[in-house]
Specification:
Length: 305
């Protein structure tokens, strides 16, 4: 079973404008509501692929109720914890001359709420997969993912981490099954400039030496790179298409990787599915459907080793 944790999920209000002009009244030409947050995006892509998952995290207020209902309608099993103060955040995503975002804060999460989440995670069994994904809210210690992994150490649960800098680096000592920085995040981690695939591989190996089992690096128009725990290096080119919305593309890549790995028991196929799912969501208004993923899989006949 796959479980995803989204500490601060959101309702994204996505609007398209002819033009964004500060100080003016504008009318949308299209709008949509998307229930998300990085872990929920992973679960959403898995649902599109026909794979079940359970979404955990924190919700609050009437927006939390709406998010829980929306997640269930997407074919995801919700198992959220309700907190008392604040409300589930609403993010405004504006598509005009360029993409702009206004992200909400979310509810107040206390240490007692974290303890309740950890108790839920104690139900997971050996060979289950846990995805810890997204930025950590300011009210929570930034090493919360490491604390969760330390608590679950020795359980046989395969844990994937998709987070930035401190939140990711602190987990490496607990040997996450998969980490997925993008090329910009990788450069920020080591305070270097990365100009080639060879440069990326050098620092992917650094992360592996620090404890990560599999390192998946998304590289935008350059495709994706995977350094597997078996020391094999795989590369896929980027899918061809028109980028519509970059939100959720990286999360879709994680979902596709897990789907491909569990279905084919192959890291090469995991990367191929991950790249196709990431590209498909980038070329869609929200998380892509299975038909779009299948279309892009045809572009990726194999991975280069």
């Amino acid at each position: 079973m796959i479980y995803t944790v989204t500490l601060n999920p959101s309702i994204d209000y996505v609007v398209e404008l002819h033009e964004l002009t500060a100080g003016e009244i504008m009318r949308t030409k299209a709008e949509d509501l998307i229930f998300g947050g990085k872990g929920i995006n992973v679960s959403s892509m898995l649902a599109q692929l026909g794979m079940k998952s359970t979404a955990l995290g924190f919700i609050a207020g009437f927006t939390g109720e709406a998010l829980e209902q929306g997640v269930a309608a997407m074919g995801i099993q919700p198992d959220f914890l309700r907190v008392e103060q604040g409300f589930t955040r609403i993010n405004v995503k504006v598509h005009a001359q360029e993409e702009s975002e206004i992200n909400g804060q979310g509810p107040l999460i206390r240490s007692s709420h974290i303890e309740q989440l950890v108790k839920k995670l104690d139900r997971l069994k050996k060979d289950d997969i846990l995805v810890l994904s997204g930025n950590v809210p300011a009210s929570i210690p930034q090493d919360i993912y490491a604390d969760i992994m330390q608590h679950l150490q020795g359980s046989g649960i395969r844990i994937c981490v998709d987070a930035r800098q401190e939140s990711l680096m602190s987990t490496l000592v607990y040997h996450p099954f998969l980490i997925k920085p993008n090329h910009k995040e990788l450069a920020e981690m080591f305070e270097v400039e990365l100009s080639s695939r060879e440069d990326l591989l050098v620092y992917a190996k650094e992360l592996q030496a620090m404890g990560a089992r599999n390192v998946l690096v998304s590289m935008a128009e350059q495709g994706a790179l995977l350094l597997s725990e078996t020391q094999e290096v795989y590369h896929t080119p980027a899918c061809k298409g028109q980028v519509v919305n970059s939100v959720g593309a990286g999360d879709s890549m994680v979902a596709g990787f897990l789907y491909g790995y569990l279905r084919e028991n192959s890291y090469a196929e995991a990367l191929r599915y991950g790249t196709a799912c990431g590209g498909a969501s980038a070329f869609s208004k929200g998380i892509a459907n299975k038909e779009k993923v299948a279309e892009l899989l045809e572009q990726l006949t194999d991975c280069v080793c």
